[in-house]
Design a protein that fits this description.
This protein has about 180 residues and is α/β, with parallel strands linked by helices. Helices cover about 35% and strands about 25% of the residues. It contains seven helices and seven strands, in the order H-H-H-E-H-E-H-E-E-H-E-H-E-E. It binds S-adenosylmethionine (SAM).
Length: about 180
Amino acid sequence: MAKNIALFLKQALNNPASVGAVAPSGKALGRMMARGLGPDSGPVVEIGPGTGSLTRAIVAAGVPQENLTLVELNEAFCHLLARRYPRARIIHGGAQEMGAHGIRNAAVVISGLPLLNFPSGLQHEILSAVFDALAPGCKLVQFTYGRKPPISPQVMQNLELTWHLRGRVWANFPPASVYEFRRGG
Ligand SMILES: C[S@@+](CC[C@H](N)C(=O)[O-])C[C@H]1O[C@@H](n2cnc3c(N)ncnc32)[C@H](O)[C@@H]1O
């Protein structure tokens, strides 16, 4: 655990915009992000897993590693994830490139990306890739430290996204809100 925090902090100092947090998510946030998942959830994609705080909650909920794809930009985090989740598929790259990796028909995308740090062009690229990767009608689950949905209104409108607040997690540093996004009504 202390090793995770040290690695996270080092990477956050070196890459503040893309890591976008000072500490990994806590257990309560992990549980809220993984709510509803289980052995029969189907293919789960996690984007921005970092040191794997949310991954741990997803696996604890019963999702087999074989059904899990982890897409992470940071190479040091990818090495750690590969050691810890040897049967998961780990992609070292940007979430915006998921299509090039053939990721399709996901049942859910779980995101720890710091979307508020991203310009709207990059948000658009990432969210297009997310909804291309999801099976029709399936959702993106995203947390944010802000008090509003973390996707720019213009991107929401362009991609015809609708949102729902799943809940707030006060027992996290910083406190976080968890949103679900879907495409269309
Ligand atoms: C706020 S941290 C969240 C880490 C972890 N999910 C957690 O909740 O503790 C954001 C993570 O997203 C990764 N990241 C940033 N931009 C990315 C991108 N375009 N594609 C994939 N991962 C990205 C960072 O390297 C970092 O690991």
